[in-house]
Design goal:
By secondary structure, the protein is an alpha/beta fold. The chain has 34 helices and 30 strands.
Length: 1000
């Protein structure tokens, strides 16, 4: 009769197979016990007193009363059912859902473990299954690096191997807290993590990146930190795979792995993390399916079914009193040992509490009930596990079960703080293993740097971030000799290796890649950056020719950003290698590198800024575009040395043409004064070539014996010298039809007419002298008062070029742009860039009669060949931010001093504040209604605006750099009402930035 019932049950469950494993032959080979160099480890753990052992979930009389009350009312079926945690999926059809419901309702299973699916679907199913359970279900998930290990639309944290490189345990604890809160949000009580396996076998087919590394202390430290984070939020951690799956060569999903070590070795290495984490309060353990002859004399008996392992070792010797889970019972490491029902009986008798992922629940329940009836499993044994399960259900709050709130699940699971933590994790993980010739960080930006990609996964974020620091030339060729020939033109070569970010994928160099790497390194100074598991380095037999070696562990966008930062010194290297690489590198190797004060990149929260508030910038930018205030724009915000917001909006023109990108160039108009002419003047001031009282006649002798000869330097730069605001020089060069006069212009360059004004338009070379004479002869204000004038910087260009005997464009490039990495900042950008990458500023109908794109908008600057002291620079927000950060750091950037802090302070002073002049020397310092800023910035703030629709502003008190670039003058400025200024778009964005500052 019993056999008949079993057959019926088998038929009823034929359509339902609960498993998360594959099938292959098991390994029956038993080798002699071996000793291992690892056993030379001398670190010994001394357990604390019992009173000093920690617990996260204390017992209570109320808990015991609840457990006894529930247990006393249970039928045998309900008691047996509590032992099961069955597999469930949220990406399967109604057949699967109905089967799970049936197991909950008819077989009274005590829990479900979810695998693939999505968070909302899973939450709905959790509510459904819980509604069918008499005793609320345990819900578990195998989410070692976060819910994304199983669920779509959720956050993916770094693998344990990556976390193993981090030295700051507080960060690991934060990961645990985040994971726990995400679990809790969708009704999960158990996360089957941390992995406690010590991966001493680099060829381990199933653990690998799931391990924190090969050093037992490191593994224990990281696992404890992760567990503390998880359990501090009321979610249970499950350490696995007891007693140790790290030094195996077989995947227990497919066969029974052999762990052929002495008990002494196991005690010293594999069990070390367990001993420590048990004393720190770990709630539960998962027992692996392993063949361990030194612990279990019966051949091929899985450790999960071994009384010696589960009861004698785990519970008696190590004193573990928490919940004990089997690993998945459908895995071949277990299911090849015994069939359904018999296997469950064996593992219960071995001492396990929870049967995970059984292959056939109906059969297993029937056989367990029969075993109970026949006293094979005693009431005492059954009560021990069932009551323990009920105790933890009470601790999980299931005595007062509430369904999952379905509102806002996606945003709740993906808060912006996750990215902030992710940045911190990689900032602490990326590891430098070689730094010959101090090749890292790259200090000199005025050298030629090439880039070569290896691997078959994406690298776009890495290369784009590298290019934010300096000019990087990507070199590609299908022929190695041709490639090496091209690379000889460069001073350094960055090689990065990118493999898909999946833990079980092979991440090895191909033979061709190894050859190319070897040959490139032989002939060049090379930095190799690995965006893959550190074991990918095993195939490199010789590192001698590789000067710089960086391990970035995974190929994610954030790892690529952080690694690029490290290469250029925006952050320092902190990571330590969690595994050894042959004899080349040892576990815990990792070099420190120098931090240079260059702009870095991070999430807003990491500099105490609220990204939700910053996101309001999007709406303001769109309002400007919709209102025809500007067709497009770039906005950048940096704080405390890190860029936290960089976006581009709209198009270059209103006709929905080319979308604006972060690399596009804008004519920055008068910001040219601040980022070209002014810093060069500051250097001369710093060298005492000029002072506050130097007279103009001494700076530029041309102005001797004019009404301007006694203007002093201080008055000139504060716009307190009485100069005229501007003169439309171009009007005197037009004919009666308002076209460029042939007296002054040619359509083709010829002798005496080589100064290019615009496309097919050249002005007389000597017209510069005319401009200077007009300025010299112009009247001064009768009353000494503030009046902003372009003449100041036109004159300063003259001064700089006379004093240094160099052209302004060369001075700026040599003194600043080359070494700051401002490779997108220049006069006359068409000499280097295609006009598609340059936003047009106007359809000129009054002077040049053409679309002005790639040529300076300012008429006087155009007549100077595009290079003037007051205008002419083209740049993008990223480059402008570098110069502004240089000012914020009072003349120092990249650990290079361009001028002294004293010089900066002298230029950032309002000398005529008592006269109502809110200007420093060259800097605008007007705030509030009379200036271009909101009233929310500090008096120490400074910056400049540009006629074409720009602002660059720095507030030293908040350490904020704000850059807004646009082409608001397009398509025209005739009758210009400057809607951008009237709409106060730039001020509104600045107000948002200030409001985003979070008070600690």
């Amino acid at each position: 009769m019993k056999d008949y019932i079993i057959k019926i049950s088998l038929c009823a469950s034929f359509l339902f197979l609960i498993t998360n494993c594959g099938v292959s032959k098991k390994d029956n080979t038993i080798k002699d016990l071996k000793t291992d160099p690892v056993t030379k480890d001398t670190v010994v753990y001394t357990a604390p007193k019992t009173s000093e052992k920690k617990t996260f979930f204390k017992d209570s009389d109320k808990e015991t009363a609840w457990v006894d009350s529930i247990y006393s009312k249970m039928s045998l079926r309900e008691k047996v059912g509590q032992l099961f945690m069955i597999s469930a999926y949220s990406n399967k059809d109604s057949v699967h859902v109905n089967e799970v419901k049936k197991l909950v309702q008819e077989y009274k299973v005590g829990g479900v473990i979810f695998f693939q699916g999505g968070p909302v679907r899973q939450a709905k199913l959790t509510n459904l299954y819980q509604s069918k359970a008499k005793v609320p279900l345990f819900v578990g998930i195998d989410a070692e690096w976060g819910l994304a290990m199983r669920l779509d639309s959720t956050y993916r944290y770094p693998w344990n191997m990556t976390l193993g490189a981090i030295q700051d345990l507080n960060l690991i604890e934060k990961v645990g807290r985040n994971m726990a809160n995400e679990n809790k949000r969708i009704g999960i009580h158990f996360n089957f993590a941390p992995v406690l396996d010590i991966n001493t076998n680099p060829k381990n087919p199933i653990i690998g990146n799931r391990s924190f590394g090969e050093d037992k202390v490191n593994v224990a430290n990281k696992a404890i930190a992760l567990m503390k984070g998880v359990q501090s939020q009321g979610v249970f951690s499950t350490g696995k795979h007891f007693p140790g799956h790290g030094d195996t060569a077989t995947d227990s999903h497919h066969a029974l792995p052999l762990v052929n070590f002495s008990k002494e070795r196991l005690e010293q290495i594999e069990l070390y993390p367990y001993k420590r984490i048990f004393d720190e309060g770990l709630v539960s353990v998962m027992v692996g399916h392993l063949n361990i002859p030194s612990l279990e004399p019966i051949p091929n008996l899985p450790s999960s079914a071994s009384y010696n392992v589960v009861t004698n070792l785990l519970q008696k010797e190590l004193g573990f009193q928490g919940l004990i889970f089997t690993d998945g019972l459908a895995m071949k490491g277990a299911s090849n040992f015994k069939g359904p029902g018999d296997l469950e009986i064996a593992v219960i008798l071995a001492g396990n509490d929870v049967l995970l992922c059984p292959e056939n629940v109906p059969v297993a329940v029937q056989k367990l009930e029969a075993a109970y009836t026949e006293n094979v499993i005693t009431e005492e044994r059954l009560a021990h596990s069932v009551k323990k399960i009920l105790h933890y259900k009470f601790k999980a709050g299931l005595n007062k079960y509430k369904p999952i709130d379905m509102a806002n699940i996606y945003p709740d699971l993906n808060p912006s703080q996750n990215d902030a933590l992710h940045y911190q994790l990689y900032e602490n993980a990326v590891t430098v293993l070689k730094n010959e010739k101090e090749i890292l960080p790259i200090k000199e930006l005025d050298q030629k740097i090439a880039y070569v990609k290896l691997g078959d996964d994406t690298n776009s974020t890495f290369i784009s971030t590298l290019k934010k620091y300096t000019e990087i030339i990507e070199v590609k060729d299908t022929n190695l000799d041709s490639l090496n020939k091209e690379l000889r033109k460069f001073d350094k070569v960055i090689i990065s290796f990118h493999k898909v970010n999946k833990p079980w994928e092979k991440q090895e160099f191909t033979l061709t890649e190894l050859l190319w790497l070897k040959e490139i390194a032989k002939h060049n100074d090379v930095i190799l950056d690995i965006f893959a598991k550190p074991y990918s380095l095993l195939s490199i037999t010789d590192f001698d020719d590789i000067e710089g070696l960086v391990v970035s562990y995974q190929n994610s966008d954030i790892s690529q950003v952080v690694s690029a930062e490290l290469l250029f010194g925006a952050i320092e290297a902190k990571g330590k290698l969690p595994v050894s690489i042959n004899t080349s590198f040892s576990v815990n190797d990792g070099l420190m590198t120098e931090k240079l004060n260059r702009l870095a990149f991070t999430a807003a929260e990491n500099v105490n800024m609220n990204p939700a508030i910053l996101s309001k910038i999007d709406a303001v930018a769109q309002k400007a575009i919709d209102g025809k205030m500007a067709p497009g724009m770039q906005v950048l915000v940096a704080r405390k040395g890190s860029v936290i917001f960089q976006k581009s909006y709209g198009n270059q023109t209103y006709d929905n043409g080319k979308k604006v990108t972060n690399t596009d160039l804008y004519d920055v108009a008068s910001i040219s004064k601040m980022i070209s002419t002014l810093p060069n003047v500051m250097q001369l001031y710093d060298k005492e070539k000029v002072n506050l009282d130097t007279k103009l006649k001494d700076m530029v002798p041309f102005f001797a014996k004019t009404n301007k000869e006694n203007i002093i330097f201080k008055d000139l730069l504060t716009h307190y010298a009485g100069l005229q605001a501007w003169i439309p020089f171009y009007k005197a060069t037009l004919d009666s039809n308002n076209n460029p006069s042939e007296k002054y212009y040619r359509k083709i360059a010829e002798t005496g007419f080589t100064t290019k004004v615009a496309e097919n338009l050249y002005i007389r070379n000597d017209y510069h002298d005319t401009i200077m004479k007009i300025i010299a002869d112009s009247p001064l204000s009768l009353k000494k008062e503030y009046k902003y004038s372009d003449f100041t910087f036109i004159i300063l260009k003259e001064y700089l070029e006379r004093k240094t005997h160099k052209k302004l464009q060369d001075l700026s490039k040599q003194n600043f742009y080359n070494t700051l990495g401002m490779n997108n900042t220049l006069y006359n950008p068409l000499d280097k860039f295609d006009n598609n990458n340059i936003a047009p500023t106007e359809i000129d109908t009054y002077f040049r009669h053409q679309v002005i794109q790639g040529y300076v908008h300012d008429m006087a600057a155009a007549m100077e060949g595009g290079v003037a002291g007051h205008a002419g620079i083209f740049s993008n927000a990223m480059d402008v931010a570098k110069m502004m950060q240089l000012y914020l750091q009072k003349g120092n950037y990249g650990n290079k001093e361009y001028f002294s802090p004293q010089t900066f302070d002298a230029f950032n002073t309002c000398y005529y504040a008592d006269k109502g002049v809110q200007r420093g020397l060259g800097f605008d310092k007007r705030i509030g209604k009379d200036g271009p800023t909101c009233a929310c910035v500090s008096p120490s703030s400074f910056g400049h605006t540009g006629f074409t629709g720009n602002i660059a502003w720095v507030d030293p008190e908040t350490e904020i750099v704000y850059v807004f670039l646009s082409n608001r003058t397009y398509p025209g400025v005739n009758g210009d009402e400057n809607k951008l200024a009237k709409g106060k778009i730039r001020e509104e964005i600045q107000q948002i930035i200030q409001e985003a500052i979070m008070v600690k």
